[in-house]
Amino acid sequence: MIEFKNVSKWYGNFQVLNNCTFSIQKGDVVVICGPSGSGKSTLVKTINALESIQQGEIIVDGIKLNDPQTNLPQLRARVGMVFQNFELFPHLNVIENLTLAQIKVLGRSKDQAITYGLKYLERVGLLSQKDKFPGQLSGGQQQRVAIARALSMDPIIMLFDEPTSALDPEMVGEVLDVIVKLAKEGMTMCVITHEMSFAKNLSKRVIFMDEGKIVEDCSKDKFFGNPDLLSARAKEFLSKILRNN
Predict the structure, then answer these.
(1) Hey, CA dihedral for 1, 47, 21, 236, is it positive or negative?
(2) What's the CA gap between 26 and 21, in Å, rounded?
(3) Is the pTM of this model over 0.90?
(4) CA angle 63, 68, 70 (to 5 degrees)
(5) Three-state SS for 45?
(6) Neighbours of 55 (CB within 10 A)
(7) pLDDT, tens digit, for every residue of 166-219?
């Protein structure tokens, strides 16, 4: 579903991604972790071409992202993205937030878009909030609306960039519950998270990054169950984050 071949990226003279190679199969749930500034968010944003690359190749569902013929807006519509800070339009109510991209990008009628939006609002447990504005919702509710908005586009892949990092601790669980359900339904997902309990329970693989490089790409059993087999940097990171989780 996703293939990276020797992908590198620079911001000016600073190399943020360094020769990254990996693949994600349909239905895989892959957790990407690593210290701040390791390139995790940039890596995920290149999957739907929100960030461009200077070297290498990225293929999503058989489509080459750096091919000039590729219709990037069309591809982005099939790759759902959920950010740390929700990115909802504050001047639109919940159902308007869910229908706007469906109408503008997918060409659905307003009635079709509302039907899809209500379906996914119900799925994340927020049907009763459809007429409220983002500012009237808790952080956890706003993030669940953001997930419903992404799902209403019928994505083949879901990308999550630290979806719980901006939430109060008691709101984290309600968002993770939605992601857990998606994983169990077979959605292909790439999740940046520091929630190691989530990573342990739901991921199939863990990718650990440091200084723009993929240092570890292994099963969750190896990453969490056999830390002595990991690189010194990954072992150090894991011990620190488990201590704080």
Answers:
(1) negative
(2) 17
(3) yes
(4) 35
(5) helix
(6) 15
(7) 888 888 888 999 999 999 999 999 999 988 888 888 888 999 999 999 999 999
